[in-house]
Amino acid sequence: MSVEAAGAAAVAEAHPNIALAKYWGKLAEGPNLPAVPSLSLTLAGMVTRTAVRLESSLTGDELTLDGEATAGRPVERVAQLLDLVWHGSEGADGPRPAVAVDSRNDFPTAAGLASSASAFAALAVAANAALGAGRSVEELSSMARQVSASAGRSLFGGFVELPAGRAGDGWLPAQPLAPADHWALRLLVAVTAVGPKTVSSTEGMNRTAATSPYYDAWVAGAAASCQQIREAVLARDLATLGPAMEASALRMHAAALGAAPPLLYWNGATVEVMTTVQRLRAAGAEAYFTIDAGPHVKVITPAAQADQVAAELALVEGVHRVITTAPGGPARLVAAGAGPP
Ligand code: PMV
Description:
Elements: E1 9-14, E2 17-21, E3 38-44, E4 48-54, E5 62-65, E6 68-70, H1 73-86, E7 99-105, H2 115-130, H3 137-147, H4 149-154, E8 159-162, E9 175-178, E10 185-191, H5 201-211, H6 215-234, H7 238-257, H8 268-282, E11 288-290, E12 297-302, H9 306-314, E13 321-327, E14 332-337
Parallel strand pairs: 5-7
Antiparallel strand pairs: 1-4, 1-14, 2-3, 3-8, 3-13, 4-7, 5-6, 8-9, 10-12, 10-13, 11-12
Helix pairs in contact: 1-2, 1-3, 2-3, 6-7
């Protein structure tokens, strides 16, 4: 670490992404390799902004999340990604310098809104600049994926695929499929609870793999489902994408519900939103839902129908608010330099 570089700082932004074809399950061996392929949409309208600062006075890494000093597991995950970016990079000439990380979301953290995806994607880009590591976006994607698989997808904008891992091969970046302006869709997030989710996705998928009699069936069907979703996205065919996307989410949750103890991520409003979407469809709307490891429901609809569908979802009992998002761009560096960001 050169003296000139001490005090270097960088700020990056990244958007969350929502999987249309779900990732749920890891290979038994390897650095956080997904057992199934997934396909996501990166979302404008929600953003994580992360600053990474190198300071000679720091004795260890420091993490501030949404304004609060944080210790324990989140700091370990940050350090894991910083180590991956640093070791073996062009800038590395010794031990990795300690950094101060300040990360802020403009949406609820750890509530099934994919905050870890945008957080680790933004961190990868900011750390790469602050540490002078010179990593490619593919390298940053593969590294972010090792900390949170969905984060590997948020390095890219628009529609993004993350293939299933191959045992023994740690290299696995996500791949862009189509840019944000490929398709004028809106993704509405019906927020049905406040506060963080109870069971993390890692714990949930490990429990599903270890105990659910439906896990093998979920994995066996995932590649064909992802392929169907990929073709529907490329053809801008919502009538095919919608049911395939709903099936991917419901089969993931079916496998999770079969775990012991069962993983029930839904609340009453989650089910009410799903049935509302079905009712809207019966009345002629094009709207389809998906659900992650939390109680919120995300609804895809054409831009032209978004206001009307959002207004209907907001009326559902138990829905706190509806966030309207559109396809968004890749993670990006917004500032880099020698002074404080
Ligand atoms: O990447 P993780 O560990 O945050 O897991 C993401 C799991 C789901 O959000 C439920 C599905 C997905 O593909 O994003």
